[in-house]
Design brief:
The protein is α+β, with helices and mostly antiparallel strands. It has helices spanning 49-52, 143-146, 153-174; strands at 16-19, 22-25, 29-35, 41-47, 62-64, 74-82, 97-102, 117-122, 130-137. It has a domain at 29-91 and 126-147. The chain has a five-stranded mixed beta sheet with strand order 4-3-9-6-5. It is globular and about 50 Å long.
Length: 175
């Protein structure tokens, strides 16, 4: 049998893999927005192995901060949305879409009392369809300090207090 050129040139252009009869897309990609206790936020692009740490997690779960470059910190998943902007709700199980009749809360803000609206939301579990994940640092340390952009303020204050204490000891000894 002779070798003939591939009659389907488009087959190589698809960005998917077929493995064991299952369609597998590229690795997951997320934008992770992390906030700290001071109110500062940072946005990180996460893909590959780091993105896999988030897959299957529910809102409220804790994840190691090294997935977004915050070594030594723990972050808690607080929310998120998909590519269409539909929010994740903590009271909806799984990662599927669901239509809810809402009176308020995540996904709908009524303009008057008693107003309700049917809204499509996504479940609380992070999946490939998730585009953005919101998270919060559980430690008191600001994000800039965790990233190494600023020096920790506590160590400077402690050094200043030690110097003042030494000066007070010297004055007490002189008397």
């Amino acid at each position: 049998m002779e070798n003939r050129p591939c009659l389907r040139p488009y087959a190589a252009s698809f960005d998917v893999l077929f493995m064991t009869g299952r369609l597998v897309r590229n690795m997951a990609e997320f934008k992770v927005v992390v906030s700290d206790k001071t109110g500062h936020t940072r946005q990180f692009e996460v893909d590959g192995q780091d993105a896999n740490r988030f897959l299957g997690r529910d809102l409220g779960d804790e994840v190691d901060g090294s997935a977004v470059g915050l070594d030594g910190a723990t972050i808690e998943l607080t929310g998120g949305s998909d590519n269409a902007g539909r929010p994740m709700r903590e009271d909806v199980p799984g990662s599927d879409l669901k239509e809810l009749l809402l009176e308020g809360g995540v996904g709908y803000e009524p303009s008057r009392d008693g107003e309700r609206k049917r809204v499509t939301v996504r479940g609380r579990q992070v999946s490939d369809e998730t585009a953005q994940i919101n998270a919060a640092v559980l430690e008191e340390t600001p994000i800039a300090v965790l990233l190494g952009e600023e020096e920790p303020e506590d160590s400077n204050e402690a050094d200043d207090a030690d110097v003042e204490a030494d000066e007070n000891d010297d004055e007490t000894d002189a008397e």
